[in-house]
Amino acid sequence: xxxxxxxxxxxxxxxxxxxxxxxxxxxxxxxxxxxxxxxxxxxxxxxxxxxxxxxxxxxxxxxxxxxxxxxxxxxxxxxxxxxxxxxxxxxxxxxxxxxxxxxxxxxxxxxxxxxxxxxxxxxxxxxxxxxxxxxxxxxxxxxxxxxxxxxxxxxxxxxxxxxxxxxxxxxxxxxxxxxxxxxxxxxxxxxxxxxxxxxxxxxxxxxxxxxxxxxxxxxxxxxxxxxxxxxxxxxxxxxxxx
Amino acid sequence: xxxxxxxxxxxxxxxxxxxxxxxxxxxxxxxxxxxxxxxxxxxxxxxxxxxxxxxxxxxxxxxxxxxxxxxxxxxxxxxxxxxxxxxxxxxxxxxxxxxxxxxxxxxxxxxxxxxxxxxxxxxxxxxxxxxxxxxxxxxxxxxxxxxxxxxxxxxxxxxxxxxxxxxxxxxxxxxxxxxxxxxxxxxxxxxxxxxxxxxxxxxxxxxxxxxxxxxxxxxxxxxxxxxxxxxxxxxxxxxxxxxxxxxxxxxxxxxxxxxxxxxxxxxxxxxxxxxxxxxxxxxxxxxxxxxxxxxxxxxxxxxxxxxxxxxxxxxxxxxxxxxxxxxxxxxxxxxxxxxxxxxxxxxxxxxxxxxxxxxxxxxxxxxxxxxxxxxxxxxxxxxxxxxxxxxxxxxxxxxxxx
Lengths: 242, 402
Hints:
The structure holds two protein chains of two kinds.
Chain A: H1 4-26, H2 41-46, H3 63-71, H4 79-83, H5 87-91, H6 104-111, H7 158-165, H8 174-177, H9 182-186, H10 199-206, H11 229-232
Chain B: E1 2-3, H1 16-39, H2 50-63, H3 65-72, H4 80-83, H5 94-124, H6 127-136, H7 145-178, H8 191-217, H9 224-255, H10 260-268, H11 272-294, H12 308-334, H13 336-339, E2 346-347, H14 360-380
Antiparallel strand pairs in B: 1-2
C-alpha cells in the first residue's frame, strides 16, 4: 500500500471521529424531541423571569389614564409598549417606576412616513414635521388627536396622492370616486370613505364613447365580468396594468 | 417605491453580501473546472495555469462562507449546521456540500499534486518552513517513481470526482434560488444550469486574469499558446452561458405568465444599468465580440492578425469585463428577485449601505480577502516553476530583473 493512503485514512478518521465525538457532547439530549429544536428549550424559556405585567395590571391604579386611552386612538396599545416592561413596578409600585420616554424616535417607530404602512394611518415626515419638538407637546399620548384636522386628503394619504399625480387619473379629484364624510376627518378608521360599487361608475368615462380617443374604452358587457373595475385595475395608477 | 407593495417587501432582506456569495462560489467552481481541463481532458496547453487555478479555487472557497456568516450574524453558532443537520432544508445542507468540496476534492487534489514538492521543499528549507512543509506532507515522504505515479493517478481520479462536485457546489447555489416557487424571477429549472455555466465563465476569466498578472509581475513572458487556449475556452463557455441566458429570457417572454409585466418594468427601470448595460452589453456582448475576433475560438489564430501584446490587452480587457458582467448577473438575480412586489403591482428600491456589516466596505474587504489568501498560498506553495514550461510554444524565459 502506498505510504500516502494510511496517512490520509488517519486524517479522515480523525476528522470524522472528531465530528462524531463533538456531536456526542454538543448536541443537546432533548434535541429533536418535538421538532428540529431542543425540547428542553420550552422549559428553559418558561422558567425565565416575567418582565411584562400586562395592561390589566396598570388599570387598578391608573384608572383615569387607562379610561382615557381606551377612548382614544391608542386603545389597542398596551401601556408597556411605550413605558417599557413593568412587572417589577406592578409587584412593588414604589420601586422601579416605568420610564416616561419623551424622545421623538419612540413615536416615529410607528408614525414615521413609510409607504408600506396602511393608507390613512397617521404618518409624518420627521425631517419637516416640527423638528426637535417632542411629539407630546402637541399630541397627548394617551388620547392622541391632530391639533388641526387635515383639510386635504393628501395629508394622510400622501403615497396615493403622489402616485395619482403622475398617473392618467392626475386631474381627477379624490371626491370624484370617493365620498368622504366630514366625520372621516375626525375618526378616519371608524368612518371610511366610499368606493365605487358598480361597473357603470367607471363606465361613465371608459364606456360608451367612440374608440380611439384619449380615454381607453371597453365594452362593459364583455370585459372582465363579473368583477368591479378596481378589482383588476389600480385606479390610482391605472397604467400599471393587470 | 412605485405602485403597490406589501409592507414586508419595502426593505430587502438579502443585500450585497448575498450577491457576493454566489459570485465567489462561482469563481471557485469555474477555476476548478478549468484545472480539470488539463488533468482529465488532457488539454496540455493550459498546464501553466493548472496549479494557479487550484490555489485560486482554494483561496476563494475559504472565503465563500464568510458573506453568509456576516449576513446571518452569530458566526460562533455556525458549527451547528454540522451538529444538527436539517436534511429537509437545502440551505442548511450547505455545510456538507462545502465540506465535501473543500476536503474531499480540493485539498486532496492539491495535496496529491504538491506532495512531491512538499518533500523537496522540506529537505531544502530550514527552521519553521522545514517543519511546515514536513507537516504538509503528513509524514508521507516517499518520492519514489511508484509513489509519485500513485499521486498522479489519485489526483486524476479525484478530479473526475471533483467535476460533478464542482457542478454540485454551484448548481446547488442556483438550485436554492431556482427552487423558490413563490418568486417568478427565481423559480426556473434552468437556474442551476445558468449558474453553472456563468461560474465556468467567471472562473476561467479570473484565472486568465491572474495568470497574466502574476506572469507580468514575475517579469516572465506570457505563454501565448496557453493564453489563447484559455481565451478559446472562455469564448466557448461564454457562448453557452449567453445561449442559456437567452433561452431563459425567451422562455419567460413566450410563457408570459402573469408576472411578466412587472418583471418587464423592473428590467426597464430598476435593472436597466445592471442588466442591460453591465450584464448584457459590457459583460457579454462586447467580450463575446472581442473573443470571437481575437481568440482562436472560431478560426485558428483569430479573424484578425494581431500582435501578442494587442491580444493580451484584448483578453485582459475581456476578462475584466466578464467579471463585471458576472457580478452583475449575481446582483440581478439576488437583488432583482426582491425588487418587485408579490402583488405584482409595484417595485421597491435597494440602496446599498456604505458602512455596517452588510455594507459596501465589508463587501470590498471580503472581495479582497481571497487575493490576500492566494498571495499567502503562492508564497508557501509557488504554483509555477522557473524553468520553461514543458509544453506549448514557450519563448525563452527572461531573467528576473528585480
